[in-house]
Every structure is written in C-alpha cells, then in structure tokens.
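Budget justification aside, the reviewers requested a transparent look at the raw inputs and outputs of the sequence design task funded under Objective 1. We therefore reproduce one unedited record. The lines immediately below are the structure tokens for a 333-residue chain.
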C-alpha cells in the first residue's frame, strides 16, 4: 500500500510518517513537502534511509508538482500540508489561502483525474469558531474567526463538495490542539518550554483564560490510522481528548514542571479575534474503537522531556526567519 503524506516534513506529518513506518511493515510512504519555514527534514533523519520511505519536494498548490507526485499512484492521500499558525495568518493571510484553499483544490483535482482509495483531509476545530459551553459535533456549522481557520474551512468545504459532486473518496477530520515532539516553537507549548530553557519569559495573551483541548501526537496518529482503516468515505470525524485547560493553567503547569517561578509570565496584548474556547465531541470516532491514552500531565511530561533532550533540534529554528516574524508580531506593542 502506498500512502502519500503531504506536509510530511512538518510537525504532525512527520509524527505520522514515524508512526506508519513503525506500525506497518508492508507500506510505502511518500512524503510530499514544500519545505516552508515549518517543514524540516531533520524531523525524518532517522528514517531517510528506510527503503519504504521517499521524499518529493513540491507544493500542493502547484499543478505540475502535484501531477508529478501522483505518478507514485497513492492508495491513500493524507493531507497534512497547511499553513497553520493563527498569528501568522493575522499578519499575512495570503499564504494561508494559497496552501489551505488552493492546495486542497489542486489535490482534489488530481484525485479526480488519477483516482485514489481515500483522501483524508487534516483539519481543525477552529473552523467551527468559538464555543463558551458544550462541544462542537461534526454537524456544527462553520464559523471561522481568523484568516487561518477561514482558509481551512474553505479547503474542507471543497472536500465536501468534491465528494457530493464527483464522488471523490474524501474523509474530513477536525482535531483539537496538538502536544508532542517536533512541534515548531511558535505554538504555545513548545514556545513556552523553549523560552524557559533559554531563561526567557513566556508571553501570555490577554487574560490567559482562553481554553484549549490538547491531544498527544501518538494518540492523534492512532486516530488518523483508525479513520484511514475504518472510517467511511464522505464522513466527517472529530478528534478530541477531553484534556481541556485554560492557557494560564497550562502555563502554570509548564512553569511547575520546569521548576520556574510564575514571575516568568509576561502578560501581553491579546491576539486579534482570539477564540475563547474550542471543544470537540468525538463520540463518532470512539464508535470506531479509538480512544486517547495520554492525559495532559503525561503528555506534558513526555513533551518537556523531548524538548530538553533535543535542544539541537529546536535551537537552530529560533533564528533567522523566526526572529523576523517575532519582530513583526510585537512591533506595535
Ligand atoms: O505566545 C503565545 N501566547 C499565548 O497566550 C501563543 C503562541 C499562544 N497563546 C495562546 C493563544 C491560544 O489561546 O495559547 C493558545 C494556543 O495558541 P496556539 O498554540 O497558537 O494554538 P491555537 O491558536 O489554539 O491554534 C492551534 O490549534 C488548532 C494550531 O495553531 C492550529 O494550527 C490548530 O488548527
């Protein structure tokens, strides 16, 4: 079986490639990645000589690149390729529209032409907007609030439309926030852990009372595998964990786990359009036999340990383009 993983050099894509190669002997994994700032072949250094693995550089929004990668005749396509950072989408939305909307369209067109067994769209809880109480189900309406979530919503709508119109074998997945190894140090958890390791303060947005739900990388990979093997074409699946926490509580947990004082918190200006809370009902996925195994404390412990052991992975990332981005991000505050 050939599995095409787009965005395989990114955080979740590379975790999923590791998972596939560990779990399945008889598999061929094609990693198709544009290698933007968030794509890093270092994430896959340990598998690059594995005969079951290959890498093709290219952009999901480029028809020629996509045509080339479909010559590998994938049985399954898992679309991890995306621009994902909300704050970057606020500063500069265009890349999000190009990759998350046009990229999804280009892949769907290629599948219309070449066919594949299943196309799994990786998406987010953010497309549903913010919810004060209760949980979003797969039927909740899309109410995106950032250029990032609007772009993801656009890609997801195209998936639905291609299934309805052309019978393209699409499954859309929406997930809560991730926690785990190889996450680029712009997202709150790796940013805070690595800042503290460097003796820097952690910038907490607004009142710190926004709520997020976190799933550990390993649990998430098993969820995608469950959907890949047992999910029904044309369906939508939410992936959650029940691990909900405010940013402030999360920050305090990180500070305590790293034996640092709460003086290291720096309250900064709130994110524009900052969603208050995300929460997903994932009972539909549970019916396929999946459940998460990591609670937040265990996930956090494993993640902090990984960042401590892999300073040589993240240190080089916190330079160059990264510093330019933070200059823009904080220039008016
Ligand atoms: O410096 C920070 N300070 C801070 O308080 C950063 C980067 C974030 N935050 C807050 C904002 C959010 O309430 O922490 C929370 C989490 O922020 P992010 O890690 O940026 O994630 P979020 O905005 O929730 O979006 C994430 O989850 C859904 C991913 O970035 C998306 O790609 C995914 O779809």
């Amino acid at each position: 079986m050939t599995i095409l993983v787009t965005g395989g050099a990114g955080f979740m894509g590379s975790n999923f490639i590791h998972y596939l190669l560990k779990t399945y002997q008889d598999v061929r994994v094609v990693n198709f990645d544009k290698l933007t700032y968030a794509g890093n072949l270092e994430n896959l250094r340990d598998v690059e000589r594995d005969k079951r693995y290959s890498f093709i550089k290219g952009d999901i929004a480029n028809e020629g690149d996509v045509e080339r990668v479909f010559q590998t005749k994938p049985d399954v396509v898992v679309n991890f390729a995306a621009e994902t950072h909300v704050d970057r989408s606020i500063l500069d939305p265009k890349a999000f529209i190009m990759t998350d909307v046009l990229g999804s369209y280009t892949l769907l067109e290629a599948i219309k032409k070449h066919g594949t067994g299943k196309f799994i769209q990786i998406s987010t809880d953010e497309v549903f907007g913010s919810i004060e109480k209760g949980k979003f189900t797969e039927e909740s309406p899309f109410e995106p609030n950032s250029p990032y979530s609007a772009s993801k919503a656009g890609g997801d709508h195209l998936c639905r439309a291609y299934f309805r119109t052309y019978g393209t074998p699409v499954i859309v997945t929406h997930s809560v926030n991730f926690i785990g190894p190889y996450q680029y140090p712009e997202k709150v958890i790796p940013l805070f852990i690595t800042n503290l390791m460097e003796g820097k303060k952690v910038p907490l947005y607004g009142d710190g009372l926004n709520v997020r739900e976190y799933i550990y990388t390993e649990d998430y990979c098993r969820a995608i595998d469950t959907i890949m093997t047992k999910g029904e074409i044309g369906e939508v699946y939410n992936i959650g964990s029940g691990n909900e926490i405010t940013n402030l509580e999360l920050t305090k947990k990180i500070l305590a786990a790293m034996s640092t004082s709460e003086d290291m918190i720096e309250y900064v200006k709130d994110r524009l359009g900052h969603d208050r809370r995300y929460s997903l009902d994932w009972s539909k996925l549970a019916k396929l036999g999946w459940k998460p195994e990591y609670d937040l404390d265990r996930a956090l412990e494993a993640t902090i340990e990984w960042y401590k052991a892999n300073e040589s992975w993240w240190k080089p990332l916190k330079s160059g383009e990264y510093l330019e981005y933070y200059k823009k991000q904080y220039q008016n505050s």
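The chain has two domains: 2-178+216-239, 184-212+244-273+296-330. The domain at 184-212+244-273+296-330 is CATH 3.90.25.10 (UDP-galactose 4-epimerase; domain 1). Computational costs for records of this kind are itemized in the attached budget.
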